[in-house]
Amino acid sequence: MVLFLLGLISMFMYIGEKLSTHIKENLTITVEIKDFAKPEETATFGDYIKKMPYAKKVTFTSKETALERLKEEMGEDPMDLISHNPLPDTYDIYLHSPYANNDSILFIAKSLKNVHIVNKVDYQKNLIHELNYNLTRVSAVFMIIAITLLLISFVLINNTMRLLIYSNRFIINTMKLVGATKWFIRRPYLWQGILIGLSASVLATLYMVAFFYFAYPNISLYIDLNDNSLYTVIVATIFLSGIVITTFATLFATNKYLRHETNDLYFI
Question: pLDDT tens digits, residue range 17-34?
Answer without folding.
Answer: 887 888 888 888 899 998
